[in-house]
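Changelog-adjacent note: as of this version, every example in the card shows the full chain rather than a window. The one below runs 459 residues end to end.
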Amino acid sequence: MKVKRILSVALCAAIAASMAGCNKETAGGDVTTITVWTGNGGDKAFITKEIENWNNTTGKEKGIRIDYTVQEGSIGEKLDLAFSSGKAPDIFQGGTLAQLVANDQIAAFEDLPGGDALVKKFEKYIEEDMNRINGKTYMLPVSVTTYGLIYNKDMFKAAGIVDENGEAKPPETLAEMVEDAKKLTNPDKKEYGMIFPVKFGAWYDLDVTKVATATDGLPVGYNPVTGQFDFSGQAEVMKAIMQIKADGSYFPGADGIDNDTARSRFALGGIGMKTAGSYDYGVLTDQFPAKIDWGVAPFPSADRNEKHLQFMNSGSFYKINKSSVETIGAEKLMTVMEWFCSDELIKKYYENGLQLPIDFDMVSDVELGDDMENWKAFAEMTKISRQFVMPRLFDVSGQKDLAQTWLEDIWTGNIPADQIDEVCREKADMMNKGIEKYQELHPDYDGQKYILSEWNTKR
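Full-length structure tokens:
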């Protein structure tokens, strides 16, 4: 049981002769510590301060203390270990929702006091399999992350890549991105058109999958209308990246660069363009303060006359450990959860450029500072973005997926760039056969609910 005796009456009596006395606020009182884990360290300074204030006010009144920890590395692996050893946190981010539900490790909000009200608050944004499984809601979509192309305005102006008013003009098409990268590259000045964080574990997801949605509107390449995979949009992005590589229009040593290194290099200057998420506003403001004038633009598409809504994902918000409901009590856990989901905290996150609310009505009265133009730009990206839709389940066990093929064979040059279209068609065929295989192995599986005839992402 996670209850700590702050200072017992017996202890007070024992030391009364040698000390002035006990703190009456804690003498004989129990404070319940609720452990919270996250894998996101970008808002650590902000949320740590907010939690400290909460602990000293509302928490003190209710006998609750939040113990907040940012877990370095893979939070999923740490959660698995923590659950297996009986030391899992009370509230946490991370983990695979379906697996956590199957293991009966997390509690549904509908089964907790006040849970129905929280579910109602975010109801229109709740997605099946992402937030809700079999009619029960286990995770709330409180925030969103948008994505775009960040660019160095100083370099664009110096290279003459400007509009009729002389302002930096980011590329609208993939072909323009390739050409701009070439114009922006000058090795003698240590200036390069783009930077690729190849060492970053999510590089393919960020630089290929998400960028491709502007071309095809298909998150992870799954088409909800047909119920099939189609990687032709990703193929267009791959070809553009490989052309940039062939032109030498990217920062050298990409294979050894992770995303933090790439972001810090962009912030220092000499890098023309990079893909980014709205979380990078805080990174380039606080972690690696940008020494350049930079902007945010939509991802370029293959065809300027056919643009699609970009990928936008809802935040992986906190889940409640089911065993903690028994040991700590549902009411105390929900007191903490309600604060994390409160309009007050959501507004503060937005005001500080740390988190975009999924419901902008919550921040409609918030006025951002003039120095937060790029945060506003990431917020505006919600107008041309759409949330992720889960694909049908598939079984391609033992086969190399497209991301692996990209990293191991295409980027390295083992597969020539002129074979990218063919490879993407083959991988789509593999995935679609995997859908059939999974359905055959699981005849009771309802794959039809992942086919959405009304899905339309054209802008």
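Structural remarks: The CA atoms of residues 155 and 456 lie 36 Å apart.
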